[in-house]
Amino acid sequence: MMESVLAFWLQHAPLLSVLLPSFTAMGLLLLGDLGDLGGMAEQGGGHDSARVRWRRRLSLASVVLGAVMAAGLVWRAAGGELLVYQLGEWSAPFGIVLVLDRLSALMVLLTYLVAAPVLWYATGGWDVRGRHFHAIFHFQLMGLSGAFLTGDLFNLFVFFEVLLIASYVLLLHGLGRERLRMGMHYVVLNLAGSGLFLIGLAMVYAVTGTLNMADLALRVAQLTGESALIARAAALILLVVFGLKAALVPLYFWLPGTYASASAPVAALFAIMTKVGVYSIIRTHWGIFGVEAGEASLAAQAWLLPLALTTSVLGAFGALAAHSMGRMVAYLTVSSVGTILAGVGLFTPETLSAALYYTLHSTIVIAGLFLLVELMAAQRGEAGDRLRPAAALREPVLLGMMMLFGAASAAGLPPLPGFLGKLMILQSASGLAAQAWVWGVVLTVGFFSMVGLARAGVIVFWHVQPDEGASVAESGASVKLLSAAWAFMAITVALALLASPVKRYTDAAAAQLADTAAYAEAVLGSQGGAGARTTRPYDGTRSTSPLQPAAAPAPAKVLP
Tens digit of pLDDT for each residue in 510-549? Predict the structure, then answer.
């Protein structure tokens, strides 16, 4: 029995990672949640209703199973095998494919490492402050998993829309005027981004006749003249789109207010949302418009590194000047994205590997800090998370230790993974032309982040006004809520202890991503390279002749 289940999973692993959260969400919708809202307990709803308990159990069980499956994906991808799943047995580039490699497996696992503690925290009460929280939560996981596993740009757009629609609802969960106001900005900006996304895809398709990532990597390299210029323009449009999702300067202004106004578990889950933008930049500008893309190669190189370094600096300044803890953590999110994209923008496998390690660290720490901020705010009475003197915390030692741990890791103090990740980026940038800029920005940002976090800690823990008369909320001392925040701290410790094997994995992931020939061979087989046939419909000469490549592609191989 177990052998049959394992064989079934091995055969359908990528698809099951997308189907599990979608089926869970549909099951939760069928359960319904009428009568669960506050004030309706007399109708059989409320915090402890049987329906709420069953919904929580189903939701948590699905996330735990998803985390186990994601760990299995990493275990399977670690060997170097590229697993291509053809939906409907239609082969690429004409059919829809899911592609499992080291990078996609790592990002799916990171999604569940964030989702599991966040969902546990939400079951402490946030999940009943609005309707269908659990169903929307799993639709969000479906969109995230699909975006990381899809093998073509159009389905990346589709999964983007799925996760964005779910994020619109999650952002408004719990209601509130500020949440609604920032939600409107968030929706409008992302709709504009989706429109630009379609324009970029149309331009790419016009000059290549395909949106399959593996096929694009081969066809873009063959473009010359005007077609190459259009492809470069499309690459820059996609950089704008993904930069908006990742909160890259000058497109980051929406993030601090939006994340600060969201409920704590939603803001913590959103820590992975910016990484979808980072992941998409890596996929397009490394895998398609990378060093082997001919005249369209490295279209983003002149822009990405300066924008990334500026993002990191402005994020640190924002954290230093923030007037609330929520905004401070949101600005740290912006700063960390800049640091990650600086590694990506240097366009070497070593810097990309360091950036991937730092991505793991920053996502986990930022998610934990969002939960910690609400725990502290709940014990500060009317002051909430605003950075001004307020009532003493009920548990200053426990929360203070968590704050110290999270702040030290976010700022990059040894021996925590924030320090290791920044050290890897500095070492990988050694000898490059931009070394001085990268070193200067990373070290300066670390200093300003530490000062901002220290300022917040001094105000919250030392500037106490016992006579303020504020009530101390019990929710800030809940063992259940504290355990969720501690889970993120435990993952951070594990990331430091396992730094060596994790770094070996990210090294291999970066090398695999740079080997576009092996990726094309695995996804396209005989349909790719010299055997590729154009499907461009716009010129009226729908050729069936193989494209003539500018240069013979490297022999296809699968990395061990």
Answer: 999 988 888 988 898 766 555 555 555 445 454 444 444 4
Four-point Cα dihedral 502, 503, 509, 512, nearest 10: -140
The pLDDT tens digits of the residues spanning 234-255 come to 999 999 999 999 999 888 888 9
Name the band, by pLDDT with cuts 50, 70 and 90, for residue 176.
Answer: confident
Say if residue 471 is exposed, middle or buried (CB neighbours under 10 Å; 0-12, 13-18, 19+).
exposed
Beta-carbon contacts of residue 402 (< 8 Å; ≥ 6 apart): 368, 372, 485, 486, 489
Handedness of CA 385, 390, 394, 395 (dihedral sign): positive
Mean pLDDT score of the chain: 87
**364: which 2 tokens?**
């986990």
State how far the alpha carbon of 187 is from the alpha carbons of 73, 130, 179, 281, 360, in Å. 33, 19, 12, 21, 27
Whether pLDDT at 20 is above 90: yes
Tokens of 89: 């047995």
Residue 130: strand, helix, or coil: coil
**Dihedral over Cα of 520, 523, 525, 530: its sign:** negative
Residues 6+ apart with CB under 8 A from 463: 388, 389, 390
First to last CA, the chain: 30
- pTM to 2 decimal places: 0.90
For residue 442, which amino acid is it? V
Strand partners for 98: 85, 150
Give which of 326, 525, 492, 338 is closest to 415, Cα–Cα. Answer: 492
Give the burial class of 552: count Cβ atoms within 10 A of its Cβ; 0-12 exposed, 13-18 middle, 19 or more buried.
exposed
pLDDT tens profile 289-331: 988 888 988 889 899 999 999 999 999 999 999 999 999 999 9
Token pair of 371 as six digits: 């939960």
- Assess contact for 109 and 66: CB atoms under 8 A: no
